[in-house]
Amino acid sequence: MRNFMLATALLALAACSGGADEPVARESGADAFPDQPEPAAVGRFAPQNDCVELPNAKLFFVDLGKAVRDRDANALLKLTSKDVKLDFGGGGGLTTFRERLEAEEGQLWKELDEILMLGCGRDEAGDMVLPWLFSQDLGVDDPFSTMVTMGPDVVMRDKPASTGAVVETIPWDTVQLADGFDPKAPFAKVTSRSGKEGYIATDKLRSPLDYRITAAPAGDGWQIVSFVAGD
Q: The pTM is what?
């Protein structure tokens, strides 16, 4: 099932622009990159793909998706610059990247699964940025207190429980954290753009400063030049 979801995600990323409280598997990857019909985007920040027409982008995504799906560090490092940036404290390079991929019970692979489900944008230099969200102007003053809802049917409830009454449905949009963010907590208290307060399941929220990939042209292809979180 993970491989099927993996393939489906990158097929969508390849050729298209871009609920509830139950966790949704977000896995990614691809064996092919055929044209797909464009889905109806719901929400201001529903994932889109602005990279599909770039030269050799399809091949890069096929190789990237397969490497992530197979948890193949060697294949992933072949797609990565030797000077890859991995944090804002000077960490980087292929050796460090491999070490981090092998550590933390595979957490970085899970982050890559997530990223590949969320589209591709372009930065001012013309490089590819994944997820697409990071290339967008969210129109917020403080990205550190901002989260984005991950899905077309994400609900805000009046208490931190799945039995709470629905206050508002917030598809792919920004909310502001009211009391900080604990990734281990089941719910986070937030304020929506409409000014309503309530609780959203933690696994339905993503920070705009969460992990992202930047890929730059290299020869006749693309290379990952950074894989970082934070600011």
A: 0.81
